[in-house]
Design goal:
Layout: H1 2-18, H2 28-31, E1 36-40, E2 45-48, E3 53-59, E4 66-71, E5 74-78, E6 82-85, E7 93-96, E8 98-103, E9 106-110, E10 113-117, E11 123-134, E12 141-147, E13 150-155, E14 162-167, E15 173-178, E16 185-191, E17 194-199, E18 204-208, E19 214-219, E20 227-230, E21 233-237, E22 242-246, E23 253-258, E24 269-275, E25 278-283, E26 288-292, E27 299-304, H3 311-316, E28 320-326, E29 331-336, E30 341-349
Length: 354
């Protein structure tokens, strides 16, 4: 009987401990609810690069004493609940800030962010075909660059991915190295007499000498899509609007560029080439190539390459993907996945006859 009494008391104790104090909020989010808020800008509000941003903050039943806006190591204090401010950046993309609101002797911190659009509308270009060269229709082109009157090409598809050197006028492969059945080949680029090649989801890349002998591997943290060289860096795409500046040595990220036009982010960026100060980037599954300013992320020009293939040829091929530039001859080449041709083109503004 004594044992039963102790058991009942113990159960009552446990039940009592399990009861929730009606004064205790059900969620820690309610307990940490802020008394201040940002009315504007809204989260991810679109703002033209160089324009002012209008801020408005408020507090529950109190007046605002001051507001401090901090960006990186610079802070500005405003003595009003509304103010205008211009982001001190020349880059497009997501812009993060720290905003501290002071009222009633306390302070609360908020983290607003906006998206900065390009302040220019891209020029629209089309093309004129200057030459047509054979391209192997078995090659699922992922990367392409011009080297010593030849074309270095990286191809995709598991079990079929290769790095190869092709003759320009015949399209015949002079040297070929398979990358392994477990990898899906992606972009390639030249840096200091070494050829770098990405893979799609393997997060593994390869480095070759100019005879396509593999020398070493490297790792990265995103999908690999396009690759090109800018100065002492390699620039990589991953199918988003982001472009990544990487060190050739250990392939660590140095910087990141977010690509925007005057309407929003330009994503699905794929094959890359750096030509005369601008980044040329295929937009995957379209006939467009965007010309991007490497310091800002702004799209300066867009090329419409629709119609390069006949309807019959397009029915047997996949999408546009492949940009190569001959700096000595100032020649621009484009091709695509399983395309029968490599085209030498020159750009021409749309709506002109020149």
């Amino acid at each position: 009987m004594r044992y039963l009494s102790f058991l009942i008391i113990g159960l009552l104790f446990l039940i009592g401990c399990g009861k929730q104090d009606p004064e205790t909020p059900e969620s820690p989010r309610i307990k940490n609810k802020k008394n201040t808020r940002i009315i504007s800008p809204s989260i991810n509000q679109l703002v033209i690069l160089g324009d002012e941003v209008s801020f408005e903050v408020s507090a529950d039943e109190q007046s605002i004493d001051s507001v401090t806006l901090q960006v990186e190591n610079n802070s500005t204090t405003f003595k009003a609940s509304t103010f205008n401010w211009t982001p001190p950046t020349q880059r497009t993309g997501i812009y993060k800030m720290e905003l501290t609101i002071y009222c009633g002797g306390v302070s609360e911190v908020h983290y607003p962010r906006i998206r900065l659009l390009s302040d220019i509308e891209p020029e629209e270009f089309t093309y004129v075909i200057l030459g047509t060269y054979p391209h192997n229709t078995n090659d699922y082109t992922q990367g392409l660059f011009f080297l010593n009157d030849q074309l270095v090409e990286s191809t995709g598809q598991r079990g079929k991915s290769e790095i190869k050197i092709n003759a320009l006028f015949t399209g015949v492969s002079k040297s070929t190295t398979p990358i392994g059945d477990e990898f899906f080949g992606e972009g390639c680029a030249l840096y200091n007499d070494e050829i770098y090649q990405l893979t799609w989801t393997g997060r593994t890349g390869f480095v070759y000498d100019l005879d396509l002998n593999r020398k070493r591997t490297f790792q990265y943290q995103t999908e690999g899509w396009g690759l090109t060289t800018i100065g002492d860096s390699l620039l990589m795409s991953d199918g988003s609007e982001n472009l990544y500046f990487m060190t050739p040595g250990d392939f660590s990220e140095i910087d990141r560029l977010e690509v925007y036009n005057n309407k929003g982010a330009v994503s699905s960026l794929n094959e890359l080439e750096f030509i005369n100060g601008l980044i040329y980037a295929n937009e995957y599954q379209t006939d467009r190539i965007h010309l991007i300013e490497p310091t800002s992320g702004r799209v300066m020009k867009t090329i419409d390459l629709a119609g390069l293939l006949t309807n019959e040829e397009a029915g047997e091929a996949d999408v546009l993907n492949g940009i190569a530039y001959d700096p000595i001859g100032d020649r621009l080449f484009v091709t695509g996945k399983w395309w029968p041709w490599l085209f030498e083109i020159k750009l021409k503004p749309k709506n002109t006859n020149s």
